[in-house]
Design goal:
The chain has a domain at about 30-75. About 65% of the residues lie in helices and about 0% in strands. It has four helices and no strands. The chain has helices spanning about 5-20, 30, 40-75, 85. The mean pLDDT is about 80.
C-alpha cells in the first residue's frame, strides 16, 4: 500500500471501531451527573476560567506579533540614521 492509502485505511478502521463500540465514547461521570449539583457548577466555572486563560495567552501572542509587524513597517527616525559612535569627535572610521 502507498502511504496515503495506508493512512486512509487506518482512519477508516479507527472510525469503524469507534462506531462499533459506542460505550467507549460515553461522557465522564461529571458530565453525565446531576446538572444541579455543586460539582457541575464548579466544573463549568473551571472550564470557563481555563478558556479565559487561553484567550488571554493567545491575545498576548497576537498583540506581540502585531507589535513586531508595526515596528518592522515603521520608517527609521531621521536622528537614528547615523549612529552615536559616528558623530563623536575623534572617532575612528
Amino acid at each position: 500500500m502507498t502511504r496515503p492509502a495506508c493512512a486512509r485505511f487506518f482512519a477508516l478502521a479507527t472510525a469503524t471501531a469507534l462506531a462499533a463500540l459506542p460505550s467507549t465514547a460515553a461522557a465522564c461521570a461529571a458530565c453525565m451527573g446531576n446538572p444541579n449539583s455543586k460539582s457541575a457548577g464548579a466544573i463549568n466555572n473551571a472550564v470557563f476560567l481555563l478558556l479565559g486563560f487561553l484567550a488571554v495567552a493567545l491575545g498576548m501572542v497576537v498583540t506581540f506579533a502585531l507589535t513586531l509587524m508595526r515596528r518592522a513597517a515603521a520608517p527609521r527616525p531621521p536622528h537614528d540614521e547615523f549612529s552615536h559612535h559616528d558623530s563623536e569627535p575623534g572617532a575612528d572610521s
